[in-house]
Write a structure and sequence with these properties.
The protein is α+β, with helices and mostly antiparallel strands.
């Protein structure tokens, strides 16, 4: 993959090519459907990852966005025509290639010719939406509608139907120069069809957290699902602070059951109902999944955020091809632009294909366990993600669950009673809101000053790191596993640690070649030493074969400079687990191998558990310690 130590091939939309041998970008060439004043649609490939100063120089001097990354070391850009020739002469620039129609849509699929579903054209930032609508309509787009997500950190999209023949029509639409990506709009499916399995009822496993005073008070959980039954007692007394149901659909069992797991409770006796939700004092803001086709996920997440939600749960998934579609990119874009938020998605059901939300880079993917740790796997699609990232990442109890029953005033039943089946059911749909509720408890822990270092507003990366930190292998199979991830979430043991943490936002994050080094005192081998690094990655390009953008590495060195331990490479998570650590001073290094997109740097979060010195309350760098 290198040419005299330089990058050579790029990979996108199921195609691999060398930009040097591709069609050159032409400043004066006529383009079909390009808005007046728009730049030249190009792939700009650099010889290596850019440093912070180099990135700023190309942004200021050439008008490059350097936001839409394509591996290796390339970006999709609208280059100002007057700067194209100078850009091509830059020593750091390896190649500038035209961004052609074949890179703007998935490789041809056999089933495409028979489908006439809804499609979506994602526009370049400098495109004029009105002009793009006209160009698409001329080439077979039917009933085009503009979806402008720029206010929510997204892009302008045009959704439409296509006329037959589908494949040739889509090929023609991809030739419109204002279009950056073109693909089908997915069809979300609720993840309730888990297998029937023998499992003890999962109840009471959150009680250790409740005894610590963590109930979800002050937290709001956003839920996208089928409409919940607002007449059920679990959601009375101001429990629901926002409802979005543009289609006017009636209450459904799935959304009602999921909402009850997350935060349901009886307002007449707060915290006393035996089947209350995991974050029983949290509030909910709910959206109807059927509205996504018209409104988009970014608008829904933004509306939930306006209601106060910082945790978002999704017990559903799409099964697109390629897997990293615009839905996944939008979810990653929201998390990248809103660092305080954490998004969760179910891992699907056993026997199904994975897909977003759970397979997005910054979304925590959740499978169902048969009970609390050390219970085994219960339900979920088999990973990894299509590009090899670890999915699912965690498990939580999702078998034999009791929750609210739609159509009743206060009914609570086992899942098998509500959804059918001869015995207890397992479903990632039930595990996902449980972990979302745990995320709300983690946020309450940090924001409420329960951590020895004092109150802090945790980033979504720190919440994810805290949820993963306590997971340990159960001694069976490969770790992390393609169905079990890092294992069952054990927040009670994690917070009892308590964890040493470091939470770095993008504003103070790392650039290519930079590192941060931390030291910690380990008392001995009484507890495993676990070091968990998590970051929120910039959104990849829809259609990307390898959507990872930035790379951080984790290296943990034992006392005396023994052999360094490297974090398992897995998407936006790196972990080092030492079952029996030596006593003494350990060193933790976080290094930025490649930060292709920064804001202005790459933020990250660390969570460390073990037999740590009692006088350590926070994770500090060597410089800070001196």
């Amino acid at each position: 993959m290198t040419e005299a130590g330089q990058p050579r091939l790029i990979s996108h939309a199921g195609r691999r090519m060398d930009p040097r041998t591709g069609p050159p970008a032409r400043a004066g060439a006529a383009a079909v459907g390009r808005s007046p004043g728009a730049g030249v649609r190009s792939v700009v490939q650099f010889r290596r990852p850019l440093t912070r100063d180099e990135r700023f120089r190309f942004q200021r001097g050439y008008g490059l966005a350097l936001a839409d990354y394509v591996p290796d070391n390339a970006y999709v850009e609208s280059v100002p025509p007057g700067r194209l020739a100078d850009l091509e002469r830059e020593p750091l620039v390896r190649a500038v290639m035209a961004y052609g129609a074949d890179l703007r849509r998935p490789a041809a699929r056999r089933e495409l010719a028979e489908r006439r579903g809804r499609y979506e054209a994602v526009l370049f930032p400098d495109a004029d939406a009105g002009a793009a609508v006209g160009a698409l309509r001329e080439r077979g787009a039917v009933e085009p509608a503009v979806l402008d997500d720029r206010a929510h950190g997204g892009t302008v999209k045009i959704r439409f139907f296509v006329s037959a023949p589908v494949d040739s029509t889509v090929a023609g639409l991809a030739e419109v120069d204002d279009v950056r990506w073109l693909d089908e709009v997915g069809e979300p499916k609720l993840d309730a069809a888990g297998p029937v399995t023998a499992a003890p009822p999962a109840r009471g496993w959150a009680e250790p957290l409740w005894r610590r005073g963590l109930s979800g008070a002050g937290q709001v959980i956003g839920l996208i699902d089928s409409p919940i039954d607002l007449g059920h007692r679990f959601f009375a007394g101001g429990k629901v602070v926002g409802v979005r149901n543009a289609t006017g659909a009636p209450p459904r069992p799935h959304g009602t059951f999921v909402a009850g797991i997350a935060a349901g409770d009886d307002p007449a006796a707060p915290g006393a109902h035996p089947d209350r939700g995991v974050a029983w004092a949290a509030r909910l803001t709910c959206g109807n999944i059927d509205d996504l086709d018209q409104l988009g996920v970014l608008a829904y997440l933004a509306a939930a955020a306006a209601d106060g939600a910082r945790v978002h749960t999704n017990s559903w998934h799409d099964e697109p091809e390629p897997q990293y579609n615009q839905l996944a990119a939008d979810l990653d874009a929201f998390a990248w632009a809103n660092e305080d938020h954490v998004i969760l998605g179910s891992a699907g059901n056993t026997g199904e294909r994975m897909g977003p939300p759970g397979t997005a880079k910054n979304v925590l993917s959740v499978a169902a366990a048969r009970g609390p740790a050390p219970a085994g796997f219960g339900d979920g699609a088999t990973g990894p993600a299509a590009d090899g990232r670890q999915k699912p990442e965690v498990m939580a109890p999702g078998c034999a669950i009791r929750s609210a029953v739609a159509g009743t005033a206060a009914g609570v039943e086992l899942d098998r009673v509500v959804f059918g089946g001869p015995g207890p059911r397992c479903a990632s749909s039930w595990a996902t809101p449980a972990v979302a509720a745990l995320a709300a408890l983690v946020r309450q822990y940090y924001a409420g000053g329960h951590h020895p270092a004092g109150a802090l507003v945790p980033s979504g990366a720190l919440v994810r790191a805290t949820l993963i930190a306590g997971c340990l292998p159960d001694g069976a199979g490969v770790y992390p596993g393609d169905t079990t991830g890092w294992g069952v979430v054990r927040v009670d043991e994690t917070l009892a640690g308590p964890p040493l943490v470091r939470d770095v936002r993008h504003a103070g994050g790392l650039a290519t070649g930079e590192s941060a080094v931390f030291e910690l005192e380990v008392g001995g081998a009484d507890r495993p030493l676990t070091v968990t690094l998590v970051w929120t990655d910039p959104p990849g390009l829809a259609g990307s074969d390898a959507p990872a953008v930035n790379t951080l590495d984790l290296v943990v060195t034992p006392p005396g400079g023994g052999p360094a331990l490297r974090g398992d490479p897995s998407g936006t998570v790196r972990r080092v687990v030492v079952p029996r650590p030596a006593a003494g001073r350990w060193t933790v290094r976080v290094s930025a191998t490649a930060v292709h997109v920064g804001n202005p740097g790459q933020g990250y979060a660390l969570a460390v558990l073990g037999d740590l010195a009692a006088n350590q309350t926070q994770l500090t760098t060597k410089e800070e310690q001196s």
